[in-house]
Amino acid sequence: MILITFADEYLGYCLASHLAHSPAFRPQLRLTYRHSSSDNNNTNKPWLRSFKTQAIDISGIDYLNNDHLSKSMRNVDQLILTLPHHATNRLEHCKQVCDVAVRSGVRSILFLSHVGAGSRHHPTLHDYGLMEEYIVTTLPDDVHWTIVRLDWVQQYLHLWSTLVEQTKTLRLPLEGSICAVDITDVCRAVQAWANDTEVDGNSSERHAGQIYTLTGAEPLTGDKMVDMMREVTGFEGLRFQQVRLMDLDYDLRELAHDVWFDERLKRERSIMYQHAFDHTSYLYKDIVFEAPSRNQIQSFLDYFDWVKKTSGSIAVDELRLLIDQKPKSIQEFFVENANSFKPRV
User: Fold this and answer.
1) How does pLDDT run across 155-178, given as a tens digit for each residue?
2) Residue 100 in contact with residue 73, Cβ under 8 Å?
3) How many other CB atoms are found less than 10 A from the CB of residue 92?
């Protein structure tokens, strides 16, 4: 079986949703999410119900409880691990998952890391580096590990669509350029890793001990992104504004109080609640998912500061090593979501 952790957060949901579109994968999937005693019916997480209605094994657990983790690891061969944003002690959660996975006989672990994992000056990015170090130095030789470092995800821009609608302005603290990766490319890469197994269930040595970096096809400046938005929306009045990190912090915090953002969130959650994973297109790439948590906002701030200080977002072609395809361009993202970025006039 394949265990995907933190299915209640964005990356975990996208990966689980992508694999759930394949009927062959559904019986092999097991999902876990952070159990909340104040929300036993998951009213704040309607996307979890859609997995249950498709008979996918999903359960809420305490990630620091060995018994909960041991039960979730039964018959699991492959583990897909993400670093959560909502847990303050997220490193302890992930380390505990790895420790129990080893004791439970998991043979292969994939960790979704960050392109800025090497930074020691940005705490939320450094967490990824610490987790990478833990995996590389503590896992026994018979447990194959693979690390996939992600650049900025194109679909994070859904969080900016409401503000663009209202102000006709894309506000980012972007100096220089970034190489944003499409979330469907990320999910296809993970699916390729999951498919690449031997008959006896052991992870193929092709990916064992490998560190891949997934980026977009080309570097993008703020002005270039706005040029694309003008082209697909037909609205020439759109503009880019380079802002301070504290301005971005304010903008993203205020999303939770924005009525237009709340209206979109409720509309999309209604769709997610009934989603049956039977469409040819992937719902997860078109949704805003949720208002960003404090940790996620800080990770965005750290990322843009890291880009400014290191120019570290560079296009690489390692996606081909996993799925033998070119990365999707951000032009495709803006074409598919043109209506979301069209100003309300």
Assistant:
1) 999 999 999 999 999 999 999 999
2) yes
3) 12
Helix (H) or strand (E) holding 225: helix 222-233
Residue 43: is its pLDDT beyond 80? no
Task: Report the distance separating Cα 9 and Cα 292, nearest Å.
Answer: 10
Residues whose CB falls within 8 Å of the CB of residue 46, separated by 6 or more in sequence, listed in order: 269, 270, 272, 273
| Segment (H or E) for 32 | strand 29-34
Tokens 């953002």 label which residue?
261
Total count of residues recorded for the chain: 345
Question: With contact defined as beta carbons under 8 Å apart, do 227 and 214 qualify?
Answer: no
Let me know: does 253 contact 297? Beta carbons within 8 Å. yes
Task: Work out the burial of residue 41: count CB atoms within 10 Å of its CB; fewer than 13 is exposed, 13-18 middle, 19 or more buried.
Answer: exposed
Mean pLDDT for the stretch of residues 143-153: 97
Distances (CA, A) of 156 to 160, 230, 291: 8, 19, 11
